[in-house]
Amino acid sequence: MNQTDVHLMIPDLLPHFREHADTYLSSLSLKALPQLLSHARLQSHGMSEGYLKETLQRFNLSVGNEVPAGALSALGLDITGTHPWWLCASPVLLQPNQNSVILRGNMSLQLRSVEVNQLLGDLSEVFAEHHMRLVAPKPLEWLVNLPAESQLITTPLLEALLKDISGVMPQGEEKYMWQRLSNDVQMMLHASKVNAERASLGKDPVNGLWFWGAGALPKAVEPVYQGCWTSSSIIKGACTLTETRYHALPTSIFGCVPHFKAGGKYLIVIEDLATLLAHGMGMQWAEALQEIEAVWFAPLRIFLKNGEIDNVFIHTGDGRQFHISRHTLRQWWRRTKSIEAFI
Q: Given 16, 43, 180, 277, which is the most exposed site by the fewest CB atoms within 10 A?
């Protein structure tokens, strides 16, 4: 029977909290995850350059300093462009303060399709002037098809959240052009009827686009995994590029198990914790982790113990990998540590 290895990429599973760590962790009641971590062999790959790049590297995709998130998203969403170069243009809420402008993200926006179409109409001319095309395959996933290769160095949306945008704006030779374009977009959005209507309803405005992830697709390589489960359009694009069988992320490990019987290597990418924490939603992070414990880690521990899975690899998106096998799980002398010991 073929060996079955299950890899879980869960960024911010074990985050380094800046504050309120005790508050968030005290609400948790975890048993399976601490046991798995305590019986794992820890491998560290040094300083991580972000979970997105780390995940793509696990597909053996070669990416440089700028992760081509836009091009991979376009591929994952089956969007074709005139040119091979893409850029993510995430609709966001910007919060102007006295001396700064804070990127608040987009979890509160809940854009409707009719609003998206109106906003695209408002902004299309601005991008057309630069020979670019703005598309919105999903309400919160907007992309720009670029007319030429870009030398931009950008900050991924999740890494820029809750920061003053002056310190995380696009850099490189074209930075001033993109700063001007960003300002033009903000002015157009400020005058949009969509935002006037949202204001009348007490909703947050869409008052900016966050540009990140410029580039073309990396070179295609042979598949590493027999299957991958994810809700990320970027990772779905990586699956398409490497001819890896893609599956929508199920609500629990039980949606994946039937595929494991054939043996091989499988990847599961769960981004919920990273999204919540990046938006400053610490208590929601704790609630989501408690749910992941119940529907992912607790069953995984049983499958591993019973020999239905041979190895589990937990990747935390910060360069750490925890490898648990049926053999290490049986090492009774290993004391189960608290989750705090790994944070």
A: 16
| Percent of the chain predicted with pLDDT > 70 | 98
Distances (CA, A) of 302 to 135, 327, 329: 45, 13, 10
Residue 140 corresponds to which amino acid? L
Tell me which residue has tokens 């900016």. 208
Owner of token pair 């300002």: 183
Domains of the chain: 4-63+220-342 (3.40.720.10), 69-215 (no CATH)
Helices 233-242, 51-58: inter-axial angle, 10-degree rounding? 20
Report the length, in residues, of the chain.
Answer: 343
- Helix (H, G, I), strand (E, B), or coil: what is residue 112? coil
Sequence-separated (6 or more) residues with CB below 8 Å from residue 342 = 14, 34, 37
Q: For residue 116, what pLDDT band results from cuts at 50, 70 and 90?
A: very high
* Alpha-helical segments (H) within the chain: 21-26, 32-38, 51-58, 69-76, 113-128, 157-160, 175-190, 193-200, 233-242, 257-260, 272-278, 282-292, 298-305, 326-329
Q: What is the DSSP letter of 48?
A: -
CA 215 to mean position of chain CA atoms: 18
Which amino acid, residue 250? P
Q: Over the Cα atoms of the chain, what is R_g?
A: 21
The pLDDT of residue 273: 96
Distance between CA atoms of residues 161 and 275, nearest Å: 10
CA distance 69 to 75: 10
In 3D space, the residue among 113, 107, 145, 106 whose CA is nearest the CA of residue 284 turns out to be: 107
Under DSSP, the state recorded for 284 is H
Beta-sheet pairing, 320-325 with 4-9: unpaired
